[in-house]
Amino acid sequence: MLNMKTQGDAILKKFVQKKLLLYIIPNVIFNTVIPYLTLRNLGPVYLFQGEYCFARFLLPMALFLPFIITFDMLRKTIILSEEGKAGFVLPDDFSKNRFMFKMAGQNGFASLVVLLLMMLCVHLNVPKGYGFDAASLSLILGVVAGTLTVISTLWPIKKVKELSH
After folding, report:
1. Which of 58, 69, 122, 124 is 20 to 30 A from 98 (CA-CA)?
2. Domain regions of the chain by residue span
3. pTM of the predicted model, to two decimals?
4. TM segments (predicted)?
């Protein structure tokens, strides 16, 4: 039994590492390059003003990226557990779909609220009419995308493993 759990943990660890790389590389690249190419010739970029404001890129990403990654990781981890390859077993009365949608929604909503509050704090503390450099905002967007990807990949695994105890 101990060997089975260790083997399951190794499979789960390899699975998580593979998925993390698969998620983080395109998210960081796309969420850095696309805003940069869009904003680079526009001069100063504002947080909430204008057709190409920073909020237009950040807020949808803050909601949808954690939702989609969390849902996908939960779905694949639960399938791995049902196949007996994850190193843990979920309870018999476990409601998969409800849990997946609830956790994905909570992660998406929480990241949206946190980033919106951070943007509002910055907006309220910079001088009126202050614009930001497009390259800097693009890099910030890439870092935020990478951070959300890591959190949205690892947090669901932790929560599912807690259910099995």
Report:
1. 58
2. 1-164
3. 0.87
4. 20-37, 57-74, 108-126, 138-157
